[in-house]
Amino acid sequence: LMIHKCLFPVAGYGTRFLPATKSSPKEMLPVVNKPLIEYAVQEAVDAGLTRIGFVTGRGKRAIEDHFDKNYELEDQIRGTGKEDLIQPTRDLIDACEFSYTRQKEMKGLGHAILTGETLIGDEPFAVVLADDLCIADGDGVLMQMVKLFRQFRCSIVAVEEVPDDHIHQYGVVAGEPLKDGVYRITDMIEKPSKDEAPSNLGIIGRYILTPDIFDQLRETPPGKNGELQITDALKKQAQEGCVLAYRFKGRRFDCGSIDGFVDATNHCYDKFYKNGF
Ligand code: UTP
User: Fold this and answer.
1) What 3-state DSSP class applies to 121?
2) For residue 24, which of 58, 62, 116, 150 sits 20 to 30 Å off, Cα-Cα?
3) pLDDT in tens, 23-43
4) How many other CB atoms are found less than 10 A from the CB of residue 93?
5) Cβ–Cβ under 8 Å, residues 6 and 142
6) In a 3-state reduction of DSSP, which class is residue 146?
7) What is the mean pLDDT of the chain?
8) 74-112: per-residue pLDDT in tens?
9) Atom number, ligand 1, closest to the C-alpha of residue 130
10) In whole angstroms, what is the distance from residue 103 CA to residue 12 CA?
11) In 10 A of CB 234, how many CB atoms?
């Protein structure tokens, strides 16, 4: 039971980032000089997941071009110091196999994941939402989750403590503690009000899913906002078997929002770039 594949749902419109996202994908927004999606693919590769699947939509072609060669550009910079800037991207391209499928209608994250079934098949896989940028010292967040999966072999969602006034933006879990930072989920609610929320643990954009999630998704009716919610399918999985919530080590920035994006930019500038760009 090894995990090889990572699915990136990137079909969303990114309306909170208009006008930047009018004709280019949210996932290509750069944090300093690197697009969000490259941080995310790097995190997957660092966790040993090199079979990369994208669920894309209209207007997302820049992502495909990013993970491909650009002969004219590379010819232009050959032998100059600029090659160093693109080498990490080349290394990712060499390390990975990329495949793509398109979500024809934006019917929610659950629907996007179900659309990705054709790229995943019948094996456990990771899901990363690239607009949640995770920075950790030591193991990346996905690597931490892969290690946990090897031990428990069930679906896992990454969670963090969310302040009361933001809880309505998250899927929220209730669980029993299993060990340090690991909970067995007993209930989950998508975007609850402050009063409905069963805890302050909100789900962020990192999942490991066992492939029976696809059948669960097929049987799940549309939920909050009329969208097919991954939270609803996971709740059934939790009730019939086991789903874990994992309080990951590291920092996560919600780069789908302006405030989170600016925080991420400042953080990454200080951490990675200030002293040797
Ligand atoms: P968000 O809720 O952040 O939506 O989706 P969004 O459309 O990207 O952004 P806003 O709210 O309009 O600003 C969470 C993740 O799920 C993907 C998005 O691409 C994002 O990574 N998604 C969502 C899909 O791929 N398909 C969908 O139908 C919905």
Assistant:
1) coil
2) 116
3) 999 999 999 999 999 999 999
4) 15
5) yes
6) helix
7) 95
8) 899 999 989 999 999 999 999 999 999 999 999 999 999
9) 21
10) 9
11) 28
